[in-house]
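Q: Sequence in, structure out?
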Amino acid sequence: MNTIKKTLALFLTLAMLVSLAACAPTEEAAAEGDEQGKVLNIYCWNEEFKSRFTDYFETPGLVPDGVEVKFIITPNQDNAYQNALDEALLNQENAAADDKIDIFLIEADYALKYVDTDYALDVVNDIGLTEADLADQYQYTRDIVTDGSGKQKGTTWQATPGLFAYRRSIANDVLGTDDPMKVQEALANWDKFDTVASEAAAKGYKMLSGYDDSFRTFTNNVSQSWVDANNKIVIDPNIMRWVDQTKSYTDKNYNNKTTLWAPEWAADQGPSGKVFGFFYSTWGINFTLLGNSLATPEAEGGKAEVGNGIFGDYAVCQGPENYYWGGTWICAAAGTDNTELVRDIMYTLTCDPATMKQITVDTQDYTNNISAMNELASSDFKSDFLGGQNHIALFAEAAPKIDMSNISPYDQAMTEQFRIAFKDYFDGKVTREQALENFYTAVIEKHPELTK
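A: Exactly. Output:
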């Protein structure tokens, strides 16, 4: 963490958060006086947390009488959410009480940008969660939001281990089985995965949809951070393995040359898709993959049932490497006048095992409570979407293996720019060497303190 802290300090001098650090409020501003505020302002980028809050905190009647809850939602596109949040944090100290941020949400790729400033409060010493409250959370979810001084600055209801989601019908055609254990044997490492990709191509299928599908499985298994202690950019050999594999798959027509979130990528997951499988974490299976797998656009807003599209034709296995993808953390903003309410929200939505279990039962999302998830993993819990499989058991096996020791404050910029630069290489527009140079140029333009 010492290296991360030093790196972040320099990073913040050239980022928007330099202003935040310069005029950061004192910790005493966390809650001035004992009277709690009448407006709870929550900054986020989509409706996901709002739905969790509504269903498991507001609907049960846990919001105190007289408190108005306001969600300030700014989409992530073009960094709009972070820009809006940064501006609001800059104005936090001088904002009227009812306008101050009480809670803001962050993602893993840029968590350290906020965690290592005084704008995110310590959830133990400032908010009042106890070590006993937090003890049953997966350790990596705590590490991501722990600052250089060892203070935990956020908490989450999610754990997001990844799996490989494959089409049962295609696995049967290619491998002669759709049994998750047998499919896992066939995909247990990258050499085997490549072999199945060749076999799938011979049958007229693509192994993956596009360039980005396997990216997280490689970047989550690096041996070093993107930036070293001297602010030099480091490209781990495992990341270049992704480049080599993706170029090979592209040249051999093992993929459809799509990009993440593109309409073509989403369509490959539906009834007309001919793609063997997709790397997805917890939220991706119960939300994105399910939505993309329905028969018609009209069905996405309605009730998903067996027989609708290819509902029931997916299953999951561990895949060739352990990895994680995504997650959302709740942070308490310095200056909030709702510390007691924020504490109650954090406890109920991220620490209470009964709530955690119920969220998983209701939504099939994987939640951040080891005991609750292990209980479901060993039960008769099943997913109809996954053909009756208990995918929680596989997530429970994968989650403890997640290693966050190589995260850096630069992860968002690095992963975005690397994929952009190498898309041109995969498309045949530039050489491998030129793609690498374009990556360095783009990142250093964004972060001039770095060198190649």
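The chain has 21 helices and seven strands.
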